[in-house]
Amino acid sequence: MNLSDTEAWVKGEGLPAYRARQLRDWVFKARVGGFEGMTNVPKGLRAELAEKARINHLEEIKKEVSGDGTTKYLFKLEDGHSIETVLIPERGHFTLCVSSQAGCAMNCLFCLTGKQGLKRNLTAAEIVDQVVLVKRAINDPDRLTNIVLMGMGEPLANYDAVLRALDNLIAEDGMNFSHRTVTLSTCGLVPQIRKLGKDTKVNLAVSLNGADDETRSYLMPVNRTYPLSKLIPALRAFPLPNKRMITFEYILIRGMNDSDEDAMKLVSLLKGLRAKINLIPLNPHPGLSMEAPSPERVFQFQEILVQNHFTAIIRKSKGQDISAACGQLSGETAGSKWQVACGRG
Ligand code: SAH
């Protein structure tokens, strides 16, 4: 529920309007787990609310901490599916990598999440709840300032729920994140990208991974529906606030998309776009026959982009020792198969 939903519900219950904000404060700011903790709500009303309404329902079933401090949470949904959320320590703050679907239908060749197909869309509550629960779990919740929708799933394939979740994450009467520190990453669903620019002000990231249609269609089937000739114009038309850039994620795969020529193609493709390029050397996972390039190749690729005036950052994926890095996510609980992806890395 957003504020107006809550107000309408409260009104329908015959309660005074101020209860809406009060309830939202408890849920999003104090992050209580149940109505019984709402100490400024009369006892009788608390009991009544507990019968009629519910707060969050994700269940933390596992937590693993990497040597670099990255923490991945495995959450179980009510219907038994599970999703992962990854908390990434950065200089001075935390970034939380949040899932938008259980599984994913996009079937990108290099990504473990795609292998399981789509289980289902997450609800807005399940998306927001990942943030609420991690904030509740950590010692210094105020340091969790950044959110990336780069976990399991394709956020723009679950548009309405994602938008509703973003609304609650950014609302002052909700989780109160700044839209400047929230990033949505997409594999490139063009119609939804065009809509998103009108509906939100959050940052946009695009998983590019190939600078020509042949390479990109091979790696990412979505490119057959929305080839670069459709995607790039939609990005050029994307309304960017002052000083904002679109982030491009580009996984570097040995012999596939990592040559000097590929770098030059990328330069021409993105020419004139306010673009920041994150280079992610491929993360391995079992059954994947592709490899990351040598570090020299990665540096050389970066160098070409930098010489051509692009901001290009090599993203060493964090959490690899606990399989919490980009594209390593399966959401399965069975033994060592529990793996997580996060694009920010
Ligand atoms: N579906 C959205 C959100 C997921 S982001 C999207 O595609 O943007 C997950 C990120 O991890 C994507 O940028 C993807 O390119 C990257 N990724 C997937 N598998 C990877 C792997 N094996 N190594 C490195 N990065 C990977």
Structure description:
The chain has 345 residues and is of the alpha/beta class. The protein contains 12 helices and 12 strands. It has helices spanning 3-12, 18-29, 43-52, 112-115, 124-137, 159-170, 190-199, 213-219, 222-225, 228-236, 260-270, 295-307, and strands spanning 59-65, 71-76, 82-90, 93-97, 101-103, 118-121, 144-149, 182-186, 203-207, 246-252, 275-281, 311-314. The longest helix has 14 residues, at 124-137. The protein is elongated. 44% of the residues are buried. Mean pLDDT is 93; it is low at 333-345. S-adenosyl-L-homocysteine binds next to strand 8 and strand 10.
Q: Outline of this structure?
A:
The chain is built from twelve helices and twelve strands.
Distinct small molecules: S-adenosyl-L-homocysteine
Proportion in β-strands:
15-25%
What is the topology, as strand order, of the major beta sheet?
A: 1-2-3-4-7-8-9-10-11-12
What's the tally of helices? 12
Element-by-element helix/strand order: HHHEEEEEHEHEHEHEHHHEHEHE
Shape by Cα distribution: elongated
Mean pLDDT over the full residue set: 93
Helix amount, in percent?
25-40%
Regions with pLDDT < 50 over 5+ consecutive residues? 333-345
Largest sheet entry: 10 strands, mixed
Global Rg: 21 Å
**Helical/strand content category:** alpha/beta
Which characteristics define this entry?
12 helices, 20% strand, disordered C terminus, binds S-adenosyl-L-homocysteine
Task: Record the SSE blueprint.
Blueprint: H1 3-12, H2 18-29, H3 43-52, E1 59-65, E2 71-76, E3 82-90, E4 93-97, E5 101-103, H4 112-115, E6 118-121, H5 124-137, E7 144-149, H6 159-170, E8 182-186, H7 190-199, E9 203-207, H8 213-219, H9 222-225, H10 228-236, E10 246-252, H11 260-270, E11 275-281, H12 295-307, E12 311-314
Parallel strand pairs: 4-7, 7-8, 8-9, 9-10, 10-11, 11-12
Antiparallel strand pairs: 1-2, 2-3, 3-4, 5-6
Helix pairs in contact: 1-2, 5-6, 7-10, 11-12
This protein binds S-adenosyl-L-homocysteine.
Residues 110-111, 150, 154, 185-187, 207, 209, 249, 251, 280, 282-283, 326-327, 341, 343 line the site of S-adenosyl-L-homocysteine.
